[in-house]
Amino acid sequence: xxTAPAPAPTTPGPLTPxxxxxxxxxxxxxxxxxxxxxxxGWMLLSSLKPNxxxxxxAPDLWFAPTLDNYENLFTxxxxxxxxxxxxxxxxxxxxxxxxxxxxxAGYGLARSRMRGKHHLSFWIISTRMAPIAAVALPVFxxxxxxxxxxxxxxxxxxxxxxxxxxxxxxxxxxxxxxxPSLEESAQVAGCTPWQAFTRVVLPLxxxxxxxxxxxCLVFAWNDYAFALVLTGPDTQTLPIAASQLVTQTGVDWGxxxxxxxxxxxxxxxxxxxxxxxxxxxxxxxxxxxx
Length: 290
Known about the structure:
By secondary structure, the chain is mainly α.
């Protein structure tokens, strides 16, 4: 009985330009992941340490974890719950409004045949390019005149004013990719224009809607400038609560890393929950010159 010869050991082939490019891309990706994940991991570990271990000269990776920093955040007179509630309401409502209104305006802009449509689209997104510091004083004066300072509706309106141009610009590009024949076929089948929009167009652009909502939510959730200028004792958000832990007498590193974890984790979970839609939306070529 004959046996098959053992396969000869393979040697790696020459380093071609294609393979070199792939390995370079992997190295860059690994470096970017380390640059992003190491600080987040270190913050999480520090939030589970006593203050004495956090400020120790030599870092210690082997320690007895404790939840004292989180307990101190959510108990006592300066509990984090009001700040968390304000952040959830302001960020969530503003992102929902921006996505809903952006879908309506973006669809109208995409299907419009008026002259200068491209210039109008650029003008809309250009309003989002202004830094918050440049508009903080005018916005404060307007909101004070309207009685919106230290109110959640005022904060929601401020976030909406910055998120809505971005939502219109992004969603109009998604709608422009859909052929108008889809709505025309739905109307021939008996749908009204509104039914064609809600039953045909919106389901087909679900990745774009999810992408827009998540990006608007992240901006509002992480905002510090608007929250600093427009809020008061009853409407302050999580970034403001974090800044209050840095005082002239010192920094409470334990609670600061704990509140940083509280700020980061919800957005990470939201991104993971909708990652399929988010990746699809970001890779559909939504940002076009149309």
